[in-house]
Each structure stands twice: as C-alpha cells, then as structure tokens.
Amino acid sequence: MTGVADDVADRVRHGVTLAVDGLLARQRDDGSWQDTLPSAAVATASSVIALHLADPVGSAHLVRAGVQWLRDTQNDDGGWGDAVGAPSTLNVTPYAVGALHFLEPEESVEHVRRGLARIESFGGEAAMSDRDRCKLFVMCQQFLAFAGLYDEKRIMRLPIEVILLPRRLRQKVSFTVPFLLSWGLMQAHTRRSGPLRRAINRFSSPRALSYLDRLHEFEGPDGGYQESPFMVALVCIGLARAGIRPDIVRRCGDYLHTTVRADGSWPVNRDLEFSATSFVTHGLQAAGRSRDQTLRATEQWIRMCQRDTQFAPTGCPPGGWGWSRHCGWPDTDDTANAVISLARFGRIRTDEAMRLGLDWLRAMQNRNGSWSCFCTNSPVGLDGPCPAMTAHAVTALYEAGGHAISDAPVATALRWFARAQRSDGSFTCPWYRGLVAGTGSTLEALGRMGLAEGTTARRCRQWLLAAQNDDGGWGDGQGAESTAEETAWALLGLLHSGPTDHPGVRRGAVWLTERQRPDGLWDPALVGVYFLDLMYSCDLLATGYALQALGRYWEMETSRDWRQTAHADV
Length: 570
Hints:
The chain is mostly helical. Helix content is about 55%, strand content about 0%. It contains 23 helices and two strands. It has helices at about 5-25, 40-55, 60-70, 95-105, 110-120, 125-130, 135-145, 165-170, 175-190, 195-220, 230-240, 245-260, 275-285, 295-305, 330-345, 350-365, 385-400, 410-420, 435-450, 455-465, 485-495, 505-515, 540-560, and strands at about 530, 535. It has a two-stranded antiparallel sheet. Helix 2 packs parallel to helix 11 (about 230-240) and helix 17 (about 385-400) runs parallel beside helix 19. The protein is globular, with a radius of gyration of 24 Å.
C-alpha cells in the first residue's frame, strides 16, 4: 500500500479500533446492546390521548408532560416531523394538533392555529384524504375528530371483518392488524350502523378480542404490542373509547407508564434490542473479534432470544427471532441475522438453534423465491417481498445452511433478484427509504456467493457507483444527503463485489471515518420505515453497519485476498 491507499487504510484501521472500543464500552452485562430510537410526535400524541381516556386521574401528570413536549417541539413552520427537528409532514402534524386541542385547548391556542395552517399548506382536508399524500389518513382524521376539528362520521370504516377471513388469508397481513381491529371495535361501539353492519360487528368483535389476547400471551406480561408505545396507545384508544376490555386497557396504560421518557415523550418503538445487538455483533465479527471472550455472553443471549413456539398471527413456525427480546414478532431479517451471527461464531448447521432458524427461513420463503418480513406470499405493502431481507435470508442459507447456489431455495431467490431488479439496476426496499439499502444488500449477498460477475450484480454495482454523492457518501440514491447507514450499505455491496482500490470505494470509506464521533459511534438518520411512511432512526443500526463496512475494508487491505468466482450469469 502506498500514498493515498496507505492514508485511507490508516484512517480505516483507526476507525475500526475506535468503534470496537466504543461498542464494547456500551455492552451490557448479559452480552447485548441497548439501542436508542428518537422520541416521536405520533407516539407522544397517541400516548397522551390513550392515557387520558384510560386513566385521566392517575395519568394526569404524564398527559401534562407529554402535551408540553408536543408544544415545545413544534417546528418553526407550525408542523411536526418524524423526530424532533425533522421536516414537518402531513402524516404527523394532525396527530399533534388533535392531541393539543383535545387535551389542553386554551394553553395550546397558538400552537393549534399554526399547526392547522401547516396542514392547510400541505393541501388541507383534500390532501389529508388522499392516500398517496397522507398514508395515515384514517388516523389523522380521527385525531382531529377527537378535538372536534373533523366530522367523525366521514372517517372510513375499518374492516374489522378481516378477522372472519380464513386464517391462511388473514396471515397475509401482519403489522397493522392490532390497530385495525382495535379501532374497528371502537367504531362498532361509537358509530351508528345498519342491520348488516351490526351483524358483521357482532360476529367479528369476539374474534378480534381473541386475536389481541393471543398477541398478549405471545408477547409477554408487560402489556406491550410489538414493543411499540405507538401501537399500544392506538390499541388502548380503540378499546377505551369502545368501553370494553378494561383489563387490556389497564395493561396498555401500565406499558405507557413504563416506557415514557424523562422529558415526557415516547418513541414509536421502545427499542430494537435484538436487531441492534445483531447489527453490532456482525460489525465486531467483521472487525475480527468473533473469538473474543466478551462475545461469549452475546452468543448465549442470541440463543436465549429464539422463539420456541409457533406465531399464529403470521403462520410462522417455531425457531425464529424478533427485533426485541420479549415483544418482537418473529421476522425474516432478525432470524437471518441471528443465524449468520451464530455461523460466524463457528457454529455448524446441526447446532439446535441454527437448525431451527434455518428451518424457519426455508419455511417462510415465498413461492416466487423472495422473502417478506413476517408473512409468506403476501402482495400487501410492507408484507410484500423485500430485496434486503431476501439478501440476508439467502446469505444465511448459503453461509450457515450449506446450500449451494444450485439448491432450490438459493436458486429461486437468485431468479427472483433478476426479475425484481429495476431497469436502472437498483432495488427498492419497503423497510428502508430509497434505493441504496435494497441495492447494496443484494449486491453484498451476490458477492458473498461468488456471483459478483453476474449481470444482476454488475448492474447493482454500476448503479451504486453512479448514485454516490459528491461528498463521497451515499444517501437514498434519489438526491438525499449522505448518511452513515446508506454509505455503509453501499460499501458493503461494493466491497463484496470488487477491490478496495476503486476511487469511489475509498471515498466512501473516508466519508465514514470523517463522520465518526469521538466515542467511536456514528449519528443515525431517519432511514427506517415503521409503517405507512413513518420514519425512524436507530443509533446502533448506523454504527453496526458502519463498522461492518470498515471492518470489511480493513480485512481486504490486510489480507489482499480479493477473489471473484464467476458462476452462471445471474
């Protein structure tokens, strides 16, 4: 290495060391890591209304604090965004406006006026009724209706009758079902209905409540749904207004008391505890620390988080992992990442946890060769096929499961990649913004399988290099500023499909080292999709992937062991 290469390598080596030290200093005694998600106006507005409806006396202090937080975090333009200081959105602003006017109208007159003006600037009622412009239109309208600012009779009825569908059809939709059912129950008890609708509600309601009970049994005793204060608050609002199931309402209120932050706010999700630990673990493994004694506890913690029962709402078998230890639903990404972590710790596929995880992944593959997050063979939004999750699942089967690229699970996934690739060479990703996450993850998987010279991989690589920002990093591939997460995803794809001496690769590595904080970590960005255009960030997602990318770069520089194996044109 000489000149520029030496300088970049030194930067990367220092960055890897700094990140490893910073992460090990944050490791918990049980071997895991605790991540942090931003406080969110949608979660806080929902939580204060839920607590006011569920326990107005016992929760009054939390309601006051949450309302004050909403007032304090209003943007200068009158709106609210997905996080404090984030650009105002039509998806979020009606939540805060409705909560303020409903709970403390006199103290919030000016804040409500400015918020309503911001809604008008987005296009007002017409925009809020447009599903393409306001994905949360039913919730936004309902929150304004709570405050008397919208006619509740005009709000679309939610189809509680989905609970009457055969299970195999019901299992095609996952994440939004608790909200849909609880608010469907609310509408059944608070809105006038004709004979047919009353009959539908009468048959649907007991089954909807049974569904919520089964979720509670699976997710644990703390009252949470999906480890999400936002979802818990929505369920609480629905049942409290319906005047039914005070036991569930009470549990939801207890959960919100437990998860409130010191400043009076709530995040959309309490944490992504397991996901964050797997991101960090992969980073430390990429940095050559797989055999460190400090990670022995991490391996045991990963094993402990495996779910040993079937999850009926999505039809998945035992053996999966979710994003959080107690409340996370089993999903493809966390299961694949767990299996990969165990394999990189040196475990073989006959290991019981590995075997169950691999069986789970094989069982949850879609007919077309892809994987979705929770469900199989669903065309619905976030439950549809995901390139990034398919990339991680196929990597797990290839690296940990011993599958050759000609074996059916891998071969069908490779054919799906070729079909799903966009005409410009990129891939979308429903769970992250833009195009870099899907494209980088797909390219990384293809490179790991020795397919870097195939058509799909070459087109991914060309697109990523063309999408690089002038500052050396990557954003969403559609003009956004560079972020640590997207720069890392792009680099991981490029570094598994080509050498380190490409100028774009070096510039990306330098960008990461220059944005690293003194504590060794990186600032997160709002790149994750919760659902329906709600965005979130996760500090350890940014740092875990950044370390994976720099660790891969340093490994290649020190070993000079870059190899490409040309297989069939994929």
